[in-house]
Amino acid sequence: MTLSPKQLRSAAVVLLAAAAAAETIKAPAFAAAESPETRVLSALNLANIPASRDKLQFLAPLSLSNPSATFKVMGVEKWQESSAMARIRCVKAGDCMPFYVLLKWPTAGERDASLHAPMLVKERVQTHTGKDVAVRSGDKATLVLQNDKFRIVTPVTCLENGVVGQTIRVRRADNKKIQMAEVEEPGIVKGIL
Description:
alpha+beta, SH3 type barrels, 5-stranded mixed β-sheet, 5-stranded mixed barrel, 3 helices, 10 strands, 32% strand, flat
């Protein structure tokens, strides 16, 4: 059986369309196959912060609503001696909560040389009072609600930085309700029942 030139062109168009569709389908599967660690390293490198797996430490388990979420570096602050904290969020807001990763270098000099993205780098966060921050945005904390008769303890996520005595916004884990709470100490906030 021989095909006419018109039939050959039609068959070629169908084959090319099928090949293009197959490539389109493969692209998201490849992105989902990358580990979150690899995607965080890519985001850091895009922000001109050279990082490698041996320098990177997640501070808490990462919870993603979209397994192929992409990340963006929101800022970096110099931390103890030779480390830095990078604040990262998902490009699409609903894919994850903002989170921090710790970056480590052998010396403070090497850290300072590596952090050459001045718009993203900050010194350790302090408030106008000069007190150290007790809780940071994205940190998990315990909310204590108490009155004369009851005491309720529930996990929350801090939505802003705060020093001891400062009132901040927190999101409850059980019902996602946002409320105000006073910072008692690192990891503990107090609300009104």
